[in-house]
Specification:
Helix content: 40-55%
Distance between the termini: 50 Å
CATH topology of one domain: RNA-directed RNA polymerase lambda-3
Oligomer: single chain
Structural class: alpha+beta
Length: 627
């Protein structure tokens, strides 16, 4: 479905127009309608040019040649996490059979480009004139800030003054943040010199050759790749409004992409992921919890606990967090090759978190910032260490304890046991405190867990879908310029989640009915909805909760991918057919490895969405004069 509709047709098709406007600015009808599309909405981009398409073909050819080159390597590349992209690298030709295939793909794409010329395709973004003007007004309006709400509750419009005041309220916590009064950025050269000393102490800085020549190790190259970047910038502080809190506050996030600690933090994350997953309480998502409780029978007298660690990330003392990391690594059944290097690099990342907010510069002196890659693993390991302490000191341990970062779910033998556990937990560290709910019905992630009919019959906890009352359900409109399969996949994915999260068929049917109505309110035609609903049945629930080993293996295999940005030209072309393998390809002995998953697939990059057009991580307004 495209955007070739009048403003009236757009207005009639989209009945759900929820926007959280907590500002003093009065949105016009066009502004409200535009924001009601949601921040993931994509206006129609201009058609791809011939040059764009030929560049994509050349990138695909490069991927084929690199795959062929990989099959000839004597040893596999075991350090995938340390790869540094080199767009200037040109691999050798892939051999006559594969090069013939590349030529065939080029000819097929050329033929399609001739069939679907840009002159025959729309070039406007498809939005009505009033909405285009609304988009420009919202982009120019410096009195408001637009952000997605925390917990995915929809777009939020805030006064710039409120946003700045709330940010400064949080940054004024001197135990967590320190302002650099000079306003000058930190000395990056000195910071990287500290990292070089750490790597040198662990013999990870240079590789020394017999002829006396030395080069940086693969690890050092990866961590130090921002060292000589003249365009290096500070990390950026921003907030997502937590509408589910009273009063509304901001969730602090520091965007550290390509900041000087970013690559070291990426390496730490890759190393610590297995450690995090080994924590007994760790759950990856709600399905992980369901896989446990679907097979666990509890006695009738148990009580349930839902708990949340208040402001976890900035509340972890750095020294205590590093000690917890060191102790956790020491207890590992399969110890790391150099745990002290991990702790030293983590210390460097945590102690050098400098960021900007407006025209001010700050240094985080406690905790870790949400936004650096290793933050989740570090926070999980810290809480896992506290839980390990509890098992030795608390007289009332849970029958079951599972945690997703700072959200925990527990089952206890009695209310007194649960209360004692909370009291012990809150006495462990002065900065780490739990807020909690002890009941027969609790909320955890997107689940409501309770003692219902199934529990009474078989001792298995009942579950149903949890949906926050503030959720505007601003599903992606059908006329957003996403590939059609993306819209079908989102509906199918939501339906499968509902199926997993409801232990009762009756509850599933009820939430499915609501889902259908919400899709209709977002403009989806009955035919698309009906087809999507037919792809999932409640009888699939066990399969969705416990996928087979074959299904997991299929998902983990990496196909060869043709990458391109989705435009109106792609909407009419048949790129998948252009990639069909030729018979000559299989004459190459490496083809079975290169095309292990079968035919190459098309992977679409999306055009800019409303979120990218209207929101910015960088706050550009004056801050210093308000301190």
């Amino acid at each position: 479905m495209c955007l070739n509709m009048t403003p009236l047709e757009l207005d009639l098709r989209l009945r759900n127009k929820g926007v959280h406007n907590i500002s003093s600015y009065r949105l016009s009808d066009d502004e409200r309608s535009l924001l009601s599309f949601g921040l993931n909405f994509i206006p129609r981009p201009p058609p791809a040019s011939d040059d764009d398409m030929y560049a994509d073909v050349q990138d695909f050819a490069r991927s084929v040649r690199i795959r062929k080159m990989a099959t000839t390597m004597d040893t596999p590349d075991t350090d995938r996490c340390l790869r540094i992209p080199n767009p200037n690298f040109r691999p050798d030709a892939a051999g006559s059979h594969l090069e013939d295939y590349i030529t065939v793909v080029q000819h097929r794409v050329t033929a399609q480009l001739g069939q679907f010329a840009t002159a025959s395709l729309p070039t406007s973004n498809g939005l009505p004139h009033g909405m285009n003007r609304a988009l420009q007004r919202l982009r120019r309006n410096t009195d408001i800030v637009i952000k997605p709400a925390d917990k995915n509750l929809g777009p939020v419009v805030m006064d710039t003054s409120w946003y700045r005041t709330e940010a400064l309220r949080q940054l004024s916590d001197a135990t967590t943040y320190r302002r650099l009064l000079s306003g000058a950025p930190p000395n990056h050269r000195k910071i990287f010199a500290k990292l070089r000393r750490i790597l040198s102490c662990h013999d990870q800085l240079f590789v020394q050759y017999d002829n006396g020549h030395r080069v940086l190790t693969k690890l050092a190259k990866f961590m130090l790749q921002e060292e000589r970047d003249p365009g290096r910038t500070l990390a950026r502080f921003y907030m997502l409004p937590k509408l589910h809190k009273t009063p509304t506050v901001g969730r602090p996030i520091v965007s550290s992409t390509n900041y000087l600690t970013f690559h070291a933090s990426r390496w730490l994350d890759s190393v610590l992921q297995p450690v995090m997953r080994s924590i007994p309480s760790f759950v990856q998502d709600s399905r992980s919890l369901l896989q446990t409780i679907e097979r666990r029978v509890f006695p009738s007298h148990v009580v349930l606990l839902a708990a949340d660690v208040s402001s976890l990330y900035p509340s972890i003392p750095i020294d205590d967090g590093l000690l917890a990391l060191q102790e956790t690594l020491r207890r590992q059944a399969s110890p790391l090759s150099n745990p002290q290097l991990v702790c030293d690099v983590m210390s460097w990342v945590l102690r050098n978190n400098y960021f900007e907010f407006g025209d001010t510069t700050w240094h985080q002196v406690r905790g870790t910032a949400m936004g650096t890659p290793a933050a989740v693993a570090f926070a999980n390991i810290y809480l896992g260490h506290l839980e390990h302490e509890l098992t030795e000191s608390c007289p009332c341990n849970p029958l079951l304890l599972k945690r997703f970062v700072d959200d925990a779910f527990g089952v206890f033998a009695s209310r007194n046991d649960a209360a004692t556990f909370i009291e012990c937990y809150n006495s462990l560290r002065p900065t780490i405190k739990l807020t909690f709910d002890i009941s027969d019905t609790v909320e955890f992630l997107d689940l409501v867990l309770y003692k219902g009919e199934r529990f009474g019959d078989a001792g298995l906890l009942d579950v149903r879908l949890h949906q926050k009352h503030l959720n505007r359900y601003l599903y992606l409109p059908p006329f957003s310029f996403h590939p059609p399969h993306a819209k079908r996949a989102f509906i199918r994915g939501e339906l499968q989640r509902y199926c997993r999260n409801c232990s009762s068929r009756k509850q599933y049917e009820a939430v499915k009915k609501l889902f259908i109505q919400r899709l209709q309110d977002r403009g989806y035609p009955q035919g698309i909805i009906h087809h999507a609903m037919s792809t999932c049945s409640y009888d699939d629930r066990h399969r969705l909760l416990f996928p087979t080993a074959n299904a997991r293996t299929a998902r983990s295999a990496a196909p060869l991918v043709f990458k391109t940005r989705f435009t109106p030209r792609h909407d009419v072309m048949h790129l998948g057919a252009c990639l069909t393998l030729t018979e000559r390809v299989f004459a190459d002995p490496a083809s079975s490895e290169i095309f292990a998953t079968g035919q190459p697939i098309v992977c679409y990059r999306r055009a800019a969405n409303l979120g990218e057009l209207l929101t910015r991580a960088r706050f550009t307004q004056d801050v210093a004069s308000h301190l």
